[in-house]
Design goal:
Radius of gyration: 20 Å
Shape: elongated
Number of helices: 9
Helix content: over 70%
Number of strands: 2
Order of helices and strands: HHHHHHHHEEH
Distance between the termini: 67 Å
Low-confidence stretches: 1-5
Mean pLDDT: 90
Strand content: under 5%
Length: 204
């Protein structure tokens, strides 16, 4: 082995990290069908037996990758500036824009979300639930003491808008547009203006 060759992972933690890193690289250049024990072992430079020993199977590797993405999402959201909102609608606007920016920053988390929408398995539901818990914990910790707007159902409205933001990010990653609306720089500027307009219409 030459001196500039990557070192073979040693120890369980190093081997596990190499395998999860292999899953990330495979997904960034291919799709979910490319993830299997053989491809992971070849990409990570480890024996296939170690994948079975440490993860059970390829799905176990994906579950570990999802956990790493949850950590990344929590750290990215927590790094956002503290809320300066003095009304619920201002807080909603801040939250939507921060969440959208986080999703757009990581194509890997969007690939996982797309898979969760395309398939329905207990494992994928668990991944989706854990990520939702991360998001809700961030919102609760960030939210200042604000009076809930009278009338209507602001929690349901927020859920609709968060789902819309997620759908836009998924569409941008998959094809660069939603319907006939291009999600380029100009398109994203219009989306942010639309978020301002929608939240400004909330009762205060």
């Amino acid at each position: 082995m030459s001196s500039d060759s990557p070192a073979r992972p040693r120890g369980r933690s190093g081997t596990e990290a190499a395998i999860v890193g292999a899953a990330q690289r495979i997904l960034m250049r291919a799709d979910w069908s490319a993830i299997n024990v053989q491809s992971l072992a070849a990409e990570a430079g480890v024996d296939r037996k170690l994948i079975y020993r440490y993860f059970g199977d390829a799905d176990g590797v994906v579950a570990r990758l999802a956990q790493a993405l949850d950590v990344w999402l929590a750290q990215t959201l927590d790094a956002a500036p503290p809320s300066t909102a003095d009304s619920y609608r201002d807080f909603a606007r801040e939250t939507l824009k921060t969440y959208l920016a986080a999703l757009r920053a990581n194509p890997l988390i969007l690939k996982l979300m797309a898979r969760e929408l395309a398939q329905d398995t207990p494992a994928l539901r668990a991944m989706e639930t854990r990520r939702a818990d991360v998001l809700q914990a961030w919102i609760r910790a960030r939210r200042p003491r604000l009076r809930t707007p009278p009338g209507g159902d602001p929690a349901a409205l927020m859920a609709v808008l968060m789902a819309a933001v997620q759908s836009l990010a998924l569409s941008a990653a998959a094809r660069g547009q939603t319907g006939a609306f291009l999600l380029d720089a100009a398109g994203w500027a219009r989306i942010e203006t639309a978020i301002d307009q929608l939240t400004a219409a909330w009762p205060d």
